[in-house]
Amino acid sequence: MYSRTLVITLFLIAMLPIRITHAASTSTQSWMFDFGCDNSPVAEGYIQVSNTMLYDTTRGYGLDRETSCRDRGTPDPVRRDFTNSSNYNFLLDVPNGDYQVTIIAGDAIASNNTSVMLEGQNVGTISSRSGSFGELTTVTRVMDTQLTMGFGRDGRVNGVIVIAIPYPTGLRLEDRVLIPDPSVTISWNPVEEAINYNIYRAEGNDGFERIGSTTKSSYVDTTVELGLSYRYAVTQVNSRGIESAKSNVLTINMWDESHPAPRAPQGIELDTATRDALEFSWNPVDDAILYYVYRSKNPTGPFERIGAISEAQYRDNLNPTINYYYQVRAVGIGGLSLPSETLKTPITKTPIRRMEKISRAPIAVHTDNGILVSWRLLASDPPNIAFDVYRNGHKINKSPIRDRTNYLDRSGDTEAVYTVKPIVRGHIWGKIESTTVWEKNYLDVPLHKPQGGVTPDGVEYTYSANDASVGDLDGDGDYEIVLKWDPSNSKDNSQAGYTGEVLLDAYELDGSLLWRINLGKNIRAGAHYTQFLVYDFDGDGKAEVVAKTADGTIDGTGRVIGDPNADYRNSEGRILEGPEYLTVFDGLTGRALATTNYDPPRGNVCDWGDCYGNRVDRFLAGVAYLDGQNPSFIMARGYYTRTVLVAYNWRDNKITKLWKFDSATPGYESYAGQGNHQLSVGDVDNDGRDEIIYGSMAIDDDGSPMYSTGLGHGDAMHLGDLDPQRPGLEVFQVHENANSPYGYEMHDAATGEILWGVRTGIDTGRGLAADIDPRYIGYEAWAVKGEWNSPTGGLHTANGDKISDNIPPANFAIWWDGDLTREILDHNWSQEQYVGVGTIGKWDYEHEKMVNLLTAHGTYSNNGTKGNPSLQADIFGDWREEVIWRTEDSSALRIYTTPYPTEYRFVTLMQDPIYRLGIAWQNVGYNQPPHTSFYLGSGMPKPSWKPLSTDEPIKVKLDLYPNRITHTNEKHNTLRALIRFPADIQGDVVAANSIHLLVDGDDLSPKNSRFGKVISKGNAILVPFRMNDLVNAAAEYTGKVEITILGYTQEGKTFWGTALIRVGE
User: Fold this and answer.
1) pLDDT tens, 990-1002?
2) Model pTM score
3) CATH architecture of 169-254
4) Any idea what DSSP says for residue 979?
5) What CATH number labels 954-1063?
6) Which residues contact 103 (CB under 8 A, 6 or more apart)?
């Protein structure tokens, strides 16, 4: 099945029944069905489908089960009644081919959401308000002589219209020219109702791409190439703009079958591999006119043709952040040779991710057992770093602390000042930091609660503290908080009504208000409207704030953006006209630094899934390192039907657009309707650059589509190394469509391959993944059965084995109590007050019940039954997470930190790439907990090292001795790396074991003192490495290979350099 167009329109009750005007072609078949109750009137020209009419082969249509029905008695015979059920199918026997399908769904007295599947594929949801009707029109292909339509959620269906679409026949070759200017001429039988024809071509086993259009029944293709095989197909487009199925496929070979093909190229080998290019060559082939070069990311393919060249050598200008694989074919008049042997090339570039410079953020917390002091381990710390802890200037640990980053002072003093000193080889290493003691395991951050107001219809509203994010706004290495204030009349997009204005505040942790931004009356309040991002996008050491704005937005300095008097709200309080802006604000002052038009724009409201303004205003946003080195931001619109993502940079005080993905682009139809109420970001294909996981689909770092699972929209998902026993990352996701083959499933984050899943037959609204059971390696994953707070559902291991029907809450997971399993962050919900009180608990896997660890009395959770905290993040201290809830009266944000020691030591989670970006997007849409890029749980291996920088990396000069290695290298057992720093940096500020030699992606460590000695003199350092390590890392290669040295200075600055080394005999 495939979908060519998706159009949703809205009709009021008073409209007349639909009529079909047939095109001139007598071959066009059509069916019109009026769904409803047995005794209801049937519209003229329609066929009745009652709620009890089951399919049989004689009739050739019907339902697969009996449903309910309702008749509202309105004048329109199609729309007055409907069938409805949460999960049923309508079957229609038809000849194989393409069909335009229109489905009408709505209710005269109630709102409606009907999910639709055609031929097993989710094509979207029809949404309508009470008294209105939605219409979904799309094209589907039938391959088994039966059209199957699946309906879910509310499941109301008023009518269905099916129109057959004729396609061209008799596609044939008229002429073929091989040399000197290759071309082919094709023709086909004309279609009477065609306005024009689209010509599609596929090379080899690739998919079809449109190469041209014509109004004639013939076409000349002058872009063919010698030696290749092409497949052609033609479609027709009728006067309604509907494109037909493709014609018969015509294969044309661009070679002379009477001549032999050239032999395969021999002797392919690597010549040079650098950070910017790969060069290789092969032996010339007799009778070769050209050579075609092919590249793949996998040794077994698929291989993509990337170039044609007349010489027996090739240069591929790219950044080799992964291993690439090449094949070469010779081209002659007799066709294409067999491929050469496959050439593997080395990884020669490792992107250095630029992240914020943060302090150790030590904290001291009064607990029942003493004062718990904890601090951060930083990514730039040498592996042998240790710490001493001082109370009021006196050291209190007996020996340097090497295995953890916390210390319990059982004789602690709540009035004391605690100091943490980092130690390397007995000397102070880096900055010394101090802290005072929290009297409780929480800190209140006082807020400046805004005054409420009155909407134009006279409704009063107040404000509550809502979602928050953190960033270093002033460049001091500590986080500040950016908080969104939510008015009490904020709305879900499906609800009509005015809302109060959305406010963004920035606070120091002592409660000092840095600024307040008022987004103005032309930004509606609600979970899906304002998705703000806090991140240092330009690398100046201070975070910016990015948000969608409008005429009347007031920045943190009081300056108004656009027209201060504009008011685009309609009578329902929606904003469906007027300009939309995107603004970057200065994080320290709130000043608007730059404003541009918001892309993706709303355009035609009806293009997004309804016409009343619900789905057009579904926004998402995130931060991504699209080049692997510097952060960009993603602004997105739509996920129920049309889906658009746009990538931006903020550099040199300018907003620049990088790329745009639109599911309305021809060929991208399978990406419509796949988005979630949130997104995730991470390097899922291990190329050093981030991809965007947008629900059931993924978008590559360059804006190109990666995959769509086709399972449609969902309310929750989780990205990380959920199953460490398989390579790569995974996504656990729940799905809304009751007809989906999986209500929840886990899939490969890079390919979309479904690893396991469970069919639920319902809208599965909540799901979570976390390691909560140490008996099983990997994250457990679970989803609710029924209501959001259901204690039953399905609890599974990472590989899908079911553990139990009993489940913990499916809300947030948090690392809290100090062991490697994760705890559950939730709330105690009061339906009567419609608020929740935050909790943290632990899953007792033996008795399958929750054990409470914390109830945050005096606080409320956010977003109704969602029960989100304002923020969960590793804000202070060691790697465990803090959680922020608002106080009951929103007079403060209360930050809780763990009172438990831990024996484990990890780099702060805020320097893990996936986790840090998870904090940036946590406030977006339906909030989800952050996860890490590595498996953090019971039975975990040591996390792998990931390079990063917190300043502009320092370029050093690297010389290698020897600079040539053989694959045996019997003459040398040591490789010495001479690193020369700029004149203002001395070599003794570098710890040798913080230096990494990167060879083909392998991280080689220096020799320890038993095997080699590090020599430091002036601004140079000579570091020994084991030669065998280098030989093993480069064993598959010959030629000149660029290798990288990377390390950190005592101040945490990153340095790097490269050198070429010749590999081979």
Assistant:
1) 888 889 999 999 9
2) 0.87
3) Sandwich (2.60)
4) E
5) 2.60.40.10
6) 114, 116, 126, 135, 136, 137, 149, 157, 159, 160
